[in-house]
Write a structure and sequence with these properties.
Chain lengths: 226, 206
């Protein structure tokens, strides 16, 4: 119980710091909109073939915009040596990690939920038809992204080329979850249900989230303390 | 003495390779090169995982050297395996890359372990570097089965089908020997580098 209260404190602290400055979420949102617009130059936005691959496009946008939020997660703690204070606090590394991951998750999900209607309008995609299923895919995919991204953020916080290294580390690990999310989103936004041929992707995403959350919670102390 | 043993290992590996080349006409190329190359890479990944876990438990820097040596050897072998597969596919389909699930999965694994080396070069402080990369090695290893399975669902296996019965022990043994040799040489380099680093630090302190 104590652990979850500590997680909650870290989450609220991170969200409050972000909502007061809005530095990550604003840049992330602007970036998502710019890429959505740019994709319409690359592909005919109203063609049927574009709609079939729109699930993939959407997740590329989410992955790129998500790293902007994740980059700030630990970098925000660098001025005034806040990170040292956080590590020295009588809170386990796992609680700091989970708190930050939850805060990142909420921020990235917010960016996604704002850019989803824009995407629907730009590409005339019926994304509302199966919204509960789509939300499930969004939540699973985003949790995978934030867990791996928060670990990468902690790994890269003190190194040079931090902004460059985070996506380099996050995307290759994310391959299975991103591939699953792309396949499922493409199926859902074209109006098809998740059939038995695609349900494996859903199970795989759940497995990915569970495995990486567990491993991160065990190993994050090593990353933060060294 | 250690040098002599290494030379002996090298000679043995080369002799086995030369013996394998005499079978080029009798056996499909997959059995001779592709499977042994990728098998050695997989073995290197397991070695790297074991060494990383051992480092995290004992904090002995020899395990860190072993992990990076095995990862680099594995990357080299996997790269050779991918290039070899490209030639096989070109012979079968006339294209260099067909998004065959095995080939794509191999590329994803290669990228995964390439990030390990990038992380290693980016972190400067030795203890932090060893701990970070050990954690990352565990992460990368866990991702391999997930990536392989997912990519198989995405695209079924195409031209890269092989007959496992054609694979013989000495094909694999030659590559594994060569891989071991690379790993040992690279590990010794890493140990020497660490020693030089500590000496340099000592002179600075004095």
């Amino acid at each position: 119980m104590r652990f979850f209260r500590q997680v909650w404190v870290v989450t609220v602290k991170d969200l409050r710091a972000e909502l007061r400055t809005k530095e990550a979420i604003n840049s992330s949102l602007a970036f998502a909109l710019v890429i959505l617009l740019m994709f319409s130059f690359a592909f005919d936005p109203l063609a049927d073939t574009t709609r079939e691959m729109s699930g993939g496009l959407l997740w590329i946008v989410f992955a790129f915009a998500g790293t902007l939020v994740l980059n700030r997660s630990f970098a925000r703690e660098l001025p005034n040596d806040c990170l040292d204070g956080l590590i020295a606090a009588p809170v386990s590394g796992a609680a700091i990690f989970l708190g930050k991951a939850v805060a990142n998750f909420l921020l990235v999900l917010a960016v996604q939920l704002i850019s989803l209607p824009v995407f629907g309008v730009f590409y005339s995609v019926p994304w509302t038809d199966q919204f509960p299923e789509l939300l499930l895919v969004l939540v699973l995919g985003t949790w995978g992204l934030t867990v791996v991204g928060t670990v990468s953020s902690a790994l890269t916080v003190n190194i040079r080329l931090r902004e460059l290294m985070l996506p380099m580390l996050t995307y290759p690990i994310m391959f299975p979850a991103l591939l699953g999310a792309m396949e499922l989103t493409a199926t859902l936004v074209t109006g098809n249900p998740i059939g038995p041929d695609k349900s494996g992707f859903l199970k795989m995403m759940i497995g990915f989230d569970v495995i990486y959350t567990a491993v991160s919670l065990v190993l994050v102390e090593t990353i933060l303390v060294g | 003495m250690r040098e002599k043993r290494l030379y002996l290992l090298g000679v043995l590996a080369v002799a086995l390779m030369a013996y394998n080349l005499t079978e080029i006409a009798a056996r499909p190329l997959q059995a001779l090169f592709y499977i042994p190359l990728c098998g050695t890479a997989a073995l290197a990944a397991v070695t790297s995982l074991a060494a990383s876990i051992a480092f995290l438990r004992t904090r002995n820097f020899r395990f860190d050297s072993l992990a990076v040596a095995a990862t680099e050897a594995g990357l080299a072998f996997l790269a050779a395996g991918i290039v070899n597969a490209c030639f096989l596919i070109h012979a079968a389909a006339g294209k260099w890359w067909t998004w065959d699930s095995r080939l794509t999965a191999a590329l994803v694994c290669w990228l995964l372990y390439a990030t390990y080396l990038m992380l290693r070069h980016a972190v400067q402080e030795p203890t932090k570097r060893a701990a970070s990369t050990a954690v990352w090695s565990v992460f990368a290893f866990l991702d391999v089965p997930l990536a392989v399975v997912t990519i198989q669902w995405w695209k079924p296996a195409g031209h890269l089908r092989f007959d496992w019965t054609q694979l013989r022990f000495c094909n694999l043994a030659a590559m594994v020997l060569l891989g071991t040799l690379f790993t040992v040489v690279r590990m010794r380099q890493e140990e020497t580098r660490r020693e030089m680093d500590s000496l340099r630090r000592m002179t600075h302190a004095l």
